[in-house]
Amino acid sequence: MAPVKNGRLLFNDIPSGYPEPGKTTIYDESETIDLDSVSLNGGFLVKTLVLSADPYLRARMRDPKVESFVPAFEKGQPISNFGVGVVLRSENKAIKAGDHVHGLFPFKKYITLPNLEGSRILENKERLPWSAYVGVAGMPGQTAYAAWKEYAQARKGETVFVTAASGPIGSLIVQFANADGMKVIASAGSDEKVAFVKSLGADVVFNYKKTKTADVLAKEGPINVYWDNVGGESLDAALANAAKHARFVECGYITGYNGEGTPVKNMAVVFGKEITLYGFLVFSLLPKYGEDFYREIPARVAKGELRYIEDAKKGLEWAGHAILENQQGKNHGKSVIIVAEE
Amino acid sequence: MAPVKNGRLLFNDIPSGYPEPGKTTIYDESETIDLDSVSLNGGFLVKTLVLSADPYLRARMRDPKVESFVPAFEKGQPISNFGVGVVLRSENKAIKAGDHVHGLFPFKKYITLPNLEGSRILENKERLPWSAYVGVAGMPGQTAYAAWKEYAQARKGETVFVTAASGPIGSLIVQFANADGMKVIASAGSDEKVAFVKSLGADVVFNYKKTKTADVLAKEGPINVYWDNVGGESLDAALANAAKHARFVECGYITGYNGEGTPVKNMAVVFGKEITLYGFLVFSLLPKYGEDFYREIPARVAKGELRYIEDAKKGLEWAGHAILENQQGKNHGKSVIIVAEE
After folding, report:
1. Is the dihedral of CA A104, A109, A114, A115 positive or negative?
2. Taking CB atoms and an 8 Å limit, are B264 and A260 in contact across chains?
3. Would you tell me which residues 49-78 of chain B have a C-beta closer than 8 angstroms to some C-beta of chain A?
4. Each residue's pLDDT tens digit, B77-125
């Protein structure tokens, strides 16, 4: 067969604020690949089906000299993130053509992988859409599942406040907290998102662009658990309205990713209220919770016990836009890029 | 015997910034007491020997409508804090004249107590000065001892940064960390304090009024443990220079007690560096560590294994000044008020 274009999303320049498609990332079709003859050197060839756009990607779009919690992207090279693909050819006995694989993939239509290190073959007995494996049944789902178990110390009758509650992590936390018998206060950035979060069973849901978080928490709190995806003003409001011995799960800080963010004024209450703030990355919790997660969550999603929504863009050429909208909070549900059908 | 004056330090008004002796607190001698005939109603009469001035007292000097971690002082009534006294008369079989008692006492020369609830009879086999029991062998010592064991997870070769390192808590932390084989970076507010902290064995000690904390930590860090007595800029510098999985022991926040304090800019690093911040009050840790503390610490102080310094004011009429200087950091060592000799 003749070589085909191997579209890629390249990291082109460090954004000063939000990442700009066509400027800070560029979709490129200059590379070609011969799917029949590309050498595999004992590895395997994958056709990318789904890629994920997640808030943390912004932290990779930086000067590599600046330290951060994730490696910087390299200019001129494809950005990378979690994805699912189908194996087209394999020279590795552990995996065969037709198998599906999840891993940290470069944003390319076709990729060759030397071995299974860092990847996982997905059985998907539950026949979930493959995109679920970068969302509710993927890294965001693992984040919610593992950290809720590790840090929240959920107690019936207590109150939790969840930010970014319509996102893939927040929407699971709302459902976990609800199942644990907690009062759930949740915020989201549009009325449409608010309606979805209400449908998940949250007790109090508000659009933080229309209603001040501090006012809602003053009325509905104090809060025993704060699930922080955003930082800044929400964190301040949570501190001001925290109960004694509150647990703050510091999961993300999107208000600080695309600029300086708002300084936090209320840290002085931490010792007096005996609050613990747990900063974490999901990778540290996977050795403890990873296998339980795959045993439990896809099945619960398939049964309809756990709900999620997705915001899918079709075509790798739209990946830069998906990333931007994810940073701006314009996505409604988990941001995914459908690169190809099977 | 004729009645004697029973001097008291009264809470007179809520300070707007620092507490002002003669204005926000007033020393008053209008009350008298007849030591021979005052009715005890089954309790006992104590002559106050020592009272303590601690940073947290500022938080009690507020409008009672404002919530905080400690009850507000009542206007017109004596302020109160930890002290040691000697029993003059007793109708309680559990305690007799000549015994020494530690408790949360009103700032008065003589007090009657209904029972031993909240007080502890001090055996003092080690014959420490009584003032030690409100410092290294009292609440500040308990704070350092219990929280170091509970939260620091000290590991040999790691680095700790201690603020207010010449104070009664900080100076113990320097010594505990040193004994645990850590590299100790410490800050204090005068060259005299710096010299004392150096003499305790800290590796790097600086005067934060002359040298920027962030610069020292950038050079000598990253830090694995941060002992926070102050908050604000020091907390920001510690966040910026924290190692992965750092433990922040949030013990106090004096930069926020007498005004708004400096907002914290670097909270966004908490999740990525997987930092845990532990807010606590010593009272929550005493059930676990209290008895070990009294078994271990006074003996180690008596042996000279643990060192401390004291800044003593003689006379209850100077208690308001001791409290002010403590808030301003002008004390050199643990602030105590010697109310009377035995």
Report:
1. positive
2. no
3. 59, 68-70
4. 999 999 999 999 999 999 999 999 999 999 999 999 999 999 999 999 9
| Chain B residues touching A250 at Cβ < 8 A | 270-271
- Cβ contact (<8 Å) for A274 and B275? no
Residues from chain B contacting residue A70 (CB–CB below 8 Å)? 272
Measured CA to CA, the distance from residue A192 to residue A172 in angstroms comes to 17
The CB density around residue B130, as the number of other CB atoms within 10 Å, is 21
Nearest to A279 among B250, B253, B275 (CB): B275
Q: Are strands B110-113 and B44-52 parallel, antiparallel or unpaired?
A: antiparallel
Domains of chain A, earliest start first: 4-134+309-338 (3.90.180.10), 139-282 (3.40.50.720)
- Please tell me the predicted confidence (pLDDT) of residue B340: 97
Asked whether residue B260 carries a pLDDT value surpassing 80, the answer given is no
Find the mean pLDDT for residues A305-322: 96
With CB atoms and an 8 Å threshold, state whether A265 touches B260: yes
CB atoms within 10 A of CB B140: 26
**A81, β-bridge pairs:** A105
Min Cα separation B265/chain A (Å):
4
B164 touching A, CB under 8 A?
Answer: no
Query: CA B191, CA B165: separation in Å to the nearest integer?
Result: 12
**B250: nearest CB among A256, A257, A270:** A270
Helices (H), chain A: 57-60, 139-147, 168-179, 191-199, 213-220, 232-240, 269-272, 282-302, 319-328
Cross-chain Cβ contact B271/A280 below 8 Å? yes
- pLDDT, mean of residues A153-178: 97
Of the candidates A268, A269, A279, the beta carbon closest to that of B274 is on A279
* Nearest by Cα to A239 from B184, B223, B263: B263
**Which chain A residues are within 8 Å of B281, Cβ to Cβ?**
271-272, 274
Q: Is the peptide bond before A129 cis (omega within 30 degrees of 0)?
A: no
Which residue of A69, A271, A277 to mutate against B (max B Cβ within 10 Å)?
A271
Q: Give how far Cα A342 sits from Cα of A334, B105, B314, Å.
A: 21, 77, 85
pLDDT digits (tens, 9 = 90+) for A20-36: 999 999 999 999 999 99
Contacts of A251 in chain B (CB under 8 A): 271
pLDDT over 70, % of chain B:
100
| Model pLDDT, residue B228 | 97
Q: Rounded to 5 degrees, what angle do the CA atoms B224, A163, A54 make?
A: 75
Average pLDDT of chain A, as a whole number:
96
> Of B69, B256, B274, which is closest to A273 when you measure between CB atoms?
B69
Instruction: From chain A, pick out residues whose CB is under 8 angstroms from the CB of B275.
Output: 277, 279
